[in-house]
Amino acid sequence: MRVLVLGHGKTGKLVAEVATERGHGVHVLDAKENPRGAALTAPFVAGFDVVIDFTTPEAVLTNLRACLAVGAKVVVGTTGWYGSLHDMSGLATRKEGALLHGTNYSIGVQVMLQLAKQMAAPLRKAGYEFKIEETHHVTKLDAPSGTAISLQQSLSEVGEVPITSLREGDVPGLHVIEAVSGSDRLLLTHEAFGRRGFAEGAVRGAEWLSTRKGVYDFRDIFTEL
């Protein structure tokens, strides 16, 4: 494939590396080369099979509008924009493009989301109280993280579970669900050792999306990769 990577931060660099390793042609645009989406003209975007966005909450919507408006296939790993998901999904559908979104492209996190949903009802009935704690690097802009919000949604059967967000050093991502009763405590934890798992999931998602149209959530398709 011909892959356009938007964002040249730590995860964006890894996405480019992984895509190259998997035999794809890669072009990377950083923020200076794409101010307010100016580089994303229709002829330029048409030169790529798929676009992968790992930018910032401030830039992602401009990028999405520019790419989806010309029917591109876009994988977005940036978080902090989900209030506009309905609008972006509608744009992708109208222009017969494709959009794959996800708050986390780690396979391990996707399994954690499933486990959280499975444990919610029986533990709630047994009187357990829940809370979520997430820790990320100090440069992460959104708090709580998109993953923590997804975990909270997976536990919706027990009510709105409180989230504590910590920003420390260069932590790639640590998410913990704690369920406590008067008798014991259950912990469900995912700790990322680096960002490569996120990059690999995004690239494999792009390969999957390259032959499709429509709007997809990574949590619904990750088992097909």
UniProtKB/TrEMBL annotation:
InterPro entries, alphabetized: DapB_C, DapB_N, DHDPR_bac, NAD(P)-bd_dom_sf
Residues in Dihydrodipicolinate reductase C-terminal domain copies: 108-221
Domain of life of the source: Bacteria
Organism expressing this protein natively: Terriglobus roseus
The name this protein goes by in its record: 4-hydroxy-tetrahydrodipicolinate reductase
Entry keyword set: Amino-acid biosynthesis, Diaminopimelate biosynthesis, Lysine biosynthesis, NAD, NADP, Oxidoreductase
Family: Belongs to the DapB family.
GO molecular function, one term: 4-hydroxy-tetrahydrodipicolinate reductase
GO CC field: cytosol
Signal sequence bounds: none
